[in-house]
Amino acid sequence: MPSPMPKPLSGEVQSQMKRQARRDTKPEMAVRRRLHALGFRYRVNYSVPGMRRRTIDVAFPRDQLAVFVDGCFWHGCPDHGASPKNNAEWWATKISMNKARDAETAEFLRDHGWNAVRIWEHQQPDEAVMQVVQALTELRALRRRDTPAEEKH
Q: Considering only CA atoms, which of 95, 54, 97, 57 is closest in space to residue 78?
C-alpha cells in the first residue's frame, strides 16, 4: 500500500483531483448510451458478487458479463498512461496497485463464472460497444447451446 497521499503541488491540483469522477465518466456514459439505444439493459455500478468494495461499471448479471471502462491514467494504459513528475514514486506504486487490483478482480470473476471486458477510455465508443455486443452474443449463444431442449420452450 502506498504511503499516505502526498501533499498536492497546489490548491488547483487538489481541486482538480477532488473533481475526478469515479463513475459516470464521459467514456462510460457514451458506451452506456449506445448499449441502451441498441436495446441492451444492464446494471450500473454493480457490486462484484463476493468481493467487498469492488464494483463493475456496466454489468449484465444474467449473462455474467462485467464491463469495465478504465481511465488511461488511473489504470496504467500502455499507450496513454502518464507518469507524473511530482511524487513519481508514490504514483508509480498507486497505479501498480490499481493494475494488480484490476487483475485480481478479473481473476475472481473468471473463477466465479463471469467474463470481463475491459475498455480503455481512449477507445472509440462504437468500437467499445462492438466488443461488448460480441461478448454478449457469444455468451448467449453458449447458453442457448447448453440449455436442454425441454427448457427452451
A: 95
Look up residue 55 and give its three cell numbers: 464494483
Average pLDDT of the chain to the nearest whole number: 89
**Domain at 19-144, CATH homologous superfamily:** VSR Endonuclease (3.40.960.10)
pTM here is: 0.84
Burial class of 46 by CB neighbour count within 10 A (0 to 12, 13 to 18, 19+)? middle
Chain centre to alpha carbon of residue 11:
30
Q: CA–CA separation, 41 vs 60, rounded Å?
A: 8
Nearest Cα neighbor of 68 from 37, 111, 109, 97 is 109
Inter-residue contact 90 to 3 (CB < 8 Å):
yes
Determine the Cα–Cα distance for residues 115 and 111; give it in Å rounded to an integer: 9
Domain boundaries, the chain: 19-144
